[in-house]
Structures are given as structure tokens and as C-alpha cells.
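Re: the 525-residue chain
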Amino acid sequence: MFARMLYNNSRYFALFVIVIIAVGVASIKSIAIQEDPTITNMAATISTFFPGATPERVEALVTRPLEEELRKISTVDEIHSTSSTGVSFLSVKLLETIGDEELERSWPEIRDAMEDAVRQFPKGAMAPVFDNDRLASYTTIIALSSADGVDVSLSLLHRLAQEFADQARNVDGTEQVDLYGEPEEEIRVEIDENALAARGLTLTQVSAVLKAADPKISSGRVSGAGIDILIEVAGEFDSTERIRQVIINTTASGSSTRIGDIARVYRAQATPPASMVLTQGRPGILIGITMEDGLQVHAWSKTFTAFVDEFRNNAPAGIVVESTYQQSVYTDARMLSVSENLAIGIALVILVLVLTLGWRASLVVAVILPLCGLMSITLLDLMGMALHQMSVTGLIVALGLLVDGSIVMTDEVRKRLDLGHSALQSISGSVHRLRVPLLASTVTTVLAFMPLVILPGPSGDFMGSIAISVVVMLGSSLVLALIFTPVLAVWLLPRGISYEQHWWTRGVDSGAMGRALISAMNWSL
């Protein structure tokens, strides 16, 4: 029996306690800490632009082919679509009961279905845009803007933002970097009406020439065993100079009129902009950065803040680089609040035990509580779980449950010591008498939380961590109640009943209330 071994060899007992404390402290420093649980994404969106098409054409020629191909995928649960002027929008939701392997296989299958649907698209429809990263929450958000009184072009801010993003991706622990408020560029062709008239040309002719010089059609097909590939010649415009060199017509003498002869070709920001970011009323660009899972948010934020400070110091004059959101600030505040609540809960539990059992018995439970917490954090770390508001809430919920085993074991040991049993007899007898009831009570409580543990999908990711924390805490408390608690109780509790009976040593005598409770229990049993 482990309890007897630990009593006979106090060095083993001290060794086990030291190991629990050391491993627990190491786990606290290594376990992932974040604000919310990581939610498995089971949904995606597909956006397809069809410029100039009516909602009816978009529905018939773009949305329906996509829906038909997506319905062939067995893991797709729901498809919702919206067809409006020039754009098709689909939201796809997968079955929440699928496993991780099926989930990873489903996304490539959806992309393949999109490619199959593209073959049915009409001329002019653009390639669909697939997005399955909408559940990711940013760990920090950085804003780039110009200082007050300084005129900085949005193009310059965009180049700096791209440079920042490239460097940010190299920071250890950075998973994803997204830019918002990027200016969209367009190539403008401004016709000189006088030059156009002098050459006897019209705007319709110029437009037709430009359209013909910028093909978007397939030029062939390669078919084979299991493959069917469309070939497209790269003839579209990719530079302003190429547009300038487009020939409009050629005279009988051999001279040619080019676009550059009758127009000014240049790049400019698209107006009106598709999106705009304002920082303190100034145009700017936002950069959202997501940390990798499994890291401590405050440690990563410290490293990333140092990178931001270095980039700010090297930025051109008049450029403002500021942090508009830091998840670590909210996480630290929330964890501090939860920790305070946990400490208050522990203090209240110990106070109640002092009043009901006396200070010696409450000291046994007070020692077991932190050991149980450290064991639980170690197990959560080994399971790959993170500390966040839901898992810590589970630890608080389990606080009132895990003391039951230690209280019952301590009281049983005290009764046997009062009867004059030896230390070993008290340990062996208490463990033998209570091991089955304690195991049964723990198992029944664990089973009550199992529906949350096995809950599938995003709901399970969010709520399941509470139940897992409770189960881990209960398991740890059971082990400590059967192995450590009886040994501690024998060492800390007085032996025999000859010592003076005070409320702080035996607890407050409930008197009539206690007798009434005993009578009620005897009647019910």
C-alpha cells in the first residue's frame, strides 16, 4: 500500500511532494496561456465575382454549379448562398461529428470541388476565393499611419505595412499576419481628345483594341488519363509600358498609332476605395497578427513588442507605428481576476474547515489543495491543453468537489486515532474502508461531466475544457486522498482523546443541529 510505504519512509513522502511541486511549477511556466479556447473551424466561405452580371445570372451560372459540386462532399452539412449583382457568396458548414483527419481532408476536397465548378463558369466570371480562417482571433493589432501635420501617401504606408508583415512572420511563434485597409491600385488610361481627333480615332475603337489586347479566354485544352487541363496564354496587361505599346492602327505608309501616342497611362489608387482604415481620424493600415497555438500569450507579446519597438525606431520620420490591441493585456487582467476568485474560494473552504473540523484537520486539506492544483496543471500541460478562462473556470468549479475526499479521509483517520489505533492501523483501516466509496463518488461525478467532454464541434472545444479540468482535478484529488491525505492526517492530528477539547482543535459543536442531521440520516438510511 502506497500510503503505508510513504508513512514508513518519510523521505519518499518528501520526494513525491517535491516532485509534484517542481513539475507543477515547470508546467505553469510552460503551459499555453491564452484568453479563450482554440475553436476548431468547421465553416468556410466562397466568394466569386462576376462583374456586370445580374443576380439571376450569378445564381444560374456561378452559385448553382458551386452548390452542385459541394453537395457531392459527404462531410458537408449545410450550404447557404446569396447571389447579388456581380457577386456570389456561399457559406459552407461541415458536420460537427467528423474527426480531425476527416476535417483536414475536407478542405482540399472543397477546393477540388471549386475547381470542378470553375470549368462550368461563363466567360467573365472570376476565380472563387476560399476562406476558412474566419475563427482566428488576433493576438495583437498594429496600426500604421502618419503623424499629425505630416502628409504621407497611403502607397508609402502600404509598402511599410508589407515590410512590417514580412518581418513579423519571422518572429518566433507568429502564425498569421493579415493587412487591412490596403489601397487597391488600378491602371488608368486618360485619353487626349485632341490627339484622338487628330488621328481620326474614336473612344469605341480604343476600347475595343484594349479589350482585344487583354484576353481572358482559354487557348486550348490538354486531355489525358484522368486529367483535363485548360491552357491560357499569358497575354493580359501586367505593366503600364505594355499598355502604352498597344497598337491601335497602322497606316498604309506603315506608321502605327499606339496607346501611348494618344493617352497618358499611369497607376493610381482605385476610387472609391473598397475599404478604408482610420486611426485617430487619419488614414492608415491595420496589421492583425495571430500567435501560434500552444504558447503563452504574455511571453510571445513581450517578444513581439520588442520587434515593434525596433521597427518603430527604424521607420521614416512622420510614420506612427502603434499597438491598438494587445490580447495579453486582457488575458492578464482576466487571469488575475480568476486567480483572485480562486484564492478567495480556497480561503473560504479553509475557513469553513477550521470552524467545522478544527485547525489541524483544515491544515491537512490546506496542504492537499495546492498539491492537487499543481498535479492538475501538470496533467493539463501533458494533455496539450491551455490555461484560459474556460479551463480555469473548471478548476474553480472542481474546488468545492475535490476537498470532499480529503475531508472524509481526514475525519476517518481522526476517529481511528481517537479510538487508540496506531498510526499504521489508522492509515490502513481508513484507506481500506473509504477507497471504494471515494472511487465510486469520483466516477459518478466524472460521468456527470462526460457529455461535455465528448461534445463535438466548436461547442465542445469551448465548453469541453471546463469538464476536462473538472475531471482532471477530481482524478488528482482521488489519488491524493488515498495516498497522501492519510499520512498527513496521522502526522498532524493529535492521538487519543485526552487533549483539551477546544473549538479550534475539534471544530464548532453543532449541538441540536448536528443531532437533527444524524437523526435524518439514520431515518433515510
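Confidence is low (pLDDT under 50) at residues 230-234.
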